[in-house]
Amino acid sequence: MDQLTRLLGCKDEAAWRETLFALARRQGFDQVLYGVVGSRQEKLESAFVQSNYSSSWRDRYDADRLHYVDPTVTHCLASSLPIIWEPATFSGPRQQEFYEEACGHGIRSGITFPIHGPNGEFGVVSFASDAIPDPHEAVHAMAGLSLIRDYAFESSRKFVSPQLPPEERPRLTRRELEVLNWVMVGKSSWEISKITNCSEATVNFHIGNVRQKFGVSTRQQALVKAIGMGIITPEDHHRSACR
User: Fold this and answer.
1) Ranges of H-type helices in the chain
2) Which ranges carry the HTH luxR-type domain (predicted)?
């Protein structure tokens, strides 16, 4: 978790980019492409892009607008689920040619995750390597990579659009903040209920309120937003634990 929250604390694009790449390497992927636009209506050429793909491949990809050929982009436009790279993913002749060329640049296997933001943002983050595609290993890595995707998107927004002023941030109650701080260190609803001396149903009630205030569907997404907006920080838990 500490590694993930470092993304939220990065002050500039260079530090953010290197932190993202380091997180990907921990999951076994040494190449990353992250790109997001403010809305589906924006041209993909205007995307905020950070990548350590080879410059020759990026130049070729951008110059020939290969995002219109890339099946992972097409998939992500229509789905919220990740797509695992394997030869069958690149089905048509043009896509097969695209894949063969990507392999020549060390981009052979990987997973691409879609990004669909609360304000209409759209993007993708691809984690890739030169290894032979192994769907079983890819499935095993999905949970960790999905978390990286969530933290990467929330933390990148400050480079793409201004932060919300304090008055526009959701207001959480003292109990909601307490519960969210325990979620931050990985505690389950049952564990939080024992720590706070309340029922598990009450904990879930507070978590449900927090999700609703942030307009998200999971507690992890709510946590990412709360940290990204500065409502809570990793230091908050340490301070409260010492009281």
Assistant:
1) 2-9, 13-26, 55-63, 71-78, 93-103, 135-160, 174-184, 189-196, 200-214, 219-228, 234-241
2) 165-230
Where exactly are the structural domains of the chain? Answer: 2-160, 166-241
Strand partners, 84: 111
Q: What is d(CA 212, CA 206) in angstroms, rounded to the nearest whole number? A: 10
pLDDT score of 76: 92
| Mean pLDDT, residues 185-213 taken together | 93
Q: What is the pLDDT of residue 161?
A: 62
The CATH code of domain 2-160 reads: 3.30.450.80
pLDDT confidence of 162, banded at 50, 70, 90? low
Separation of alpha carbons 4 and 149, rounded Å? 10
Query: Following DSSP, what letter does each residue of 112-166 receive, concatenated?
Result: EEEEE-TTS-EEEEEEEESSPP-HHHHHHHHHHHHHHHHHHHHHHHHHHSPPPPG
Distances (CA, A) of 228 to 32, 72, 122, 131, 198: 22, 28, 18, 34, 28
Residue 234: alpha-carbon gap to chain centroid: 19
